[in-house]
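Listing 4. Sequential folding, example run.
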Amino acid sequence: DATVIGTDLSPIQPDFAPPNLRFEIDDCCSRWTYDEDSFDFIHVRCLYGSVADWPAFYQECIKHLKPGGYIEQLEFSVVPKSDDGSIVPGDMWDQCGRLAVDSSERFGKPLQVVDKMARWITEAGFEDVTEKRYSWPVGPWSSDPKLKEMGKWNQYQWEEGLEGWSMALLTRVMGVGYDHDSASGKD
């Protein structure tokens, strides 16, 4: 019988939830208000681009986990890569990924935490840190049925999300102009 607390900055959570789950509006980047040693498990997912001081965040995590507790984190690389070498340095996808990394670093909330989080978690004092990396295709090109299905959903995520992920960083941080009519195909 676990009690699960989900936190977010905005009240965007669904109305349907299991009875053991409650959502709270909270900022994980601020000092935590929970009692120390109060959690058995902390799950972190997709906070890349949201945290300015990851080492301080992990210090909050370790301080609020009970002795023997676990942290689990899932993040994604924002720099597309290919297993077959089809994405090469300097091509469009490489440039987009590098632009995302550069703009997020200028903004002060890095997107490319996937390459540093195991080290930061270890430096915070966690023991027996394990890192696993997986390929996640964009598009249904894989011959593996599971990866093909994942690729379809990931392509949809990219198609629907790319503008939202990029707009603030490109316009506010990098100074790129934006014309809504041109972007939507209206001339």
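-- end of first protein; second protein begins --
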Amino acid sequence: MSVGAAETDTQATTTANTSGITASSIQEALKEKLQAEYVDIEDMSGGCGQAFNAMIVSPQFEKKNTLARHRLVNSALKAEIAAIHAWTPKCFTPEEWQKKQSEAGT
């Protein structure tokens, strides 16, 4: 077994739960660091805080392609991303988000 690996499922769950990463902590970090106007974080790991999907709307994404947007987000969340297993961001400018909402009829 590798150094630092959990010996049991219970230990793995305890380790995951002690990472301190929650959907709300990620949301607050994005609002603060990227001046995000809208952030929706979904914990895909069943509550253990190891896999998240994110919808992020920020004016800082203006004139940036998808890769540059993801790099900006990953840089802002460097410590958080290092502590989790899976991270999937979807990044929009406010104008793109407004258009997407209009198309969806909401």
